[in-house]
Please model this.
Amino acid sequence: MIEFEAALLAIAGAFVLFAIVALYRVFAGPTDHDRVIAVNVMGTNTVIAIALVSGALDKPLFLDIALVYALLNFLLSIAFSKFNVEHGGVL
Amino acid sequence: MTPTEWAIVALALVGAFFGGVASIGIVRLPDVYTRAHAASKSDTLGAVLSIAAAALAIQTDLATIKAVFLLVFMFLTNPTAAHAIARAAQDQGIEPWTTSDEEGKS
Model:
């Protein structure tokens, strides 16, 4: 039972590592859209890591945080793409 | 470990593989459209598999329903966000990468 929880926590750590790898594109992206895509992938990896930690530690309340984070992540991507197209006239 | 726990770890491992493919694609692919492709497809599949593993790992009924709802939500919104970003890039007149760019550079 102990090694099962350790395996889930290790996979959550791997997703955090992949988010750090995607952070390279936030700094080096030639256009703004590359940066928004990389931030979107980082937010997705954060949601996955929160869900896996929730499963590993048996804390069901963490899933609420993951849901809100996923919602804000989607809203951020849509808002930034609208902001880029209309040059600031998003709201 | 029980067979259910093996299934959970296997699902999370395959999800981590696709997450790694998405991150490598984000870093290595040549232009914004191919990066959006890697982000929308590989990362969505990794997210769905990993959250399915989390939904199996949590034994509470309400939490399992929440995890399945999160899974469906990721499955809908992640490609929509990538599509919106790619469409904004196309509206700003960013040209897609072609093989002639590669030949002209080297």
About this structure: The two ends of chain B are 54 Å apart (CA to CA).
